[in-house]
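Cross-check.
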Amino acid sequence: MKVAVLMGGWSAEREVSLTSGRGIAAACRALGHDVIEIDMGRNLGQQLASAAPDVVFNALHGTPGEDGSVQGVMDLLGLAYTHSGLTTSAIAIDKELTKAMLVPAGIPMPQGKIVASDSLFSGDPLPRPYVLKPVNEGSSVGIAIVTDESNYGQPIRRDVPGPWQHFDTLLAEPFIAGKELTVAVIGDEALAVTELQTARGFYDYEAKYTDGLTLHICPAELPTEVEAACLAHALAAHRRLGCRGTSRSDFRWDPAQGLAGLYLLEVNTQPGMTPLSLVPEQAAFRGISYEQLVQRLIDMAIADHAATLAGRARA
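Predicted model, tokenized:
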């Protein structure tokens, strides 16, 4: 097949996307496909129309490749593409919309509230420690953990670097002590639970993509009921949001609270495909090679597109 690998773009995660895309392109060539590498520009529609691929492998991270915008362009062009569609992507990248979908379905998530960044300079929105994060970003971009010992000030000082300098509004959530866990879902199967241990205190953007900063323990050493709950919640979130192909659900678990201390933080619909990424790692644990993973995602994209066309024909 002719496979267009869509990568790069202009988000904060551009370099990671390029690394994912190059690995995917190499795997596609090894599988015998005709590969076109596309570094997304502002003329995306023209780039895709000129390529005329059989399928697009979406290797973009962050906005606009993960928020439904690019998915809408590909829908308009009638292209098959990997990963989730427009509606799912738009909901999943928005942490408040994700909560509105998942919490009523019985999936535990931290309570939080949207705050104006300017309000942080007059007082804390929650008791410390708490977490501040952008509402519409992924991969731990722009997260700050505010503690009594942090050097942000009390209240936070306007001149101190942090997400309040880059976003008008932020999501404030209680900080959950304990372990960082993640689960990959491929198709309709949750693969495994990985524990992430980093000396940086939490699994932020630099810890994710800098070799040597984070230890991955797969499978995680957990009580049976906690492992089962992680797998079940990740699969339920994948289904509830309508994810396609693959997703990755990130959790925090406080062992002192037992099962009640497990919380889903977010669902990533465009998880990384770099050498340090968790989905390929969990796939390998389950006996699925990188090339097999790439082919499986392509096959699912083709099948989903065919089903969509068939549904329109019946309508």
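The CA atoms of residues 178 and 255 lie 6 Å apart. The two ends are 29 Å apart (CA to CA). Passed to J.P. for a second look.
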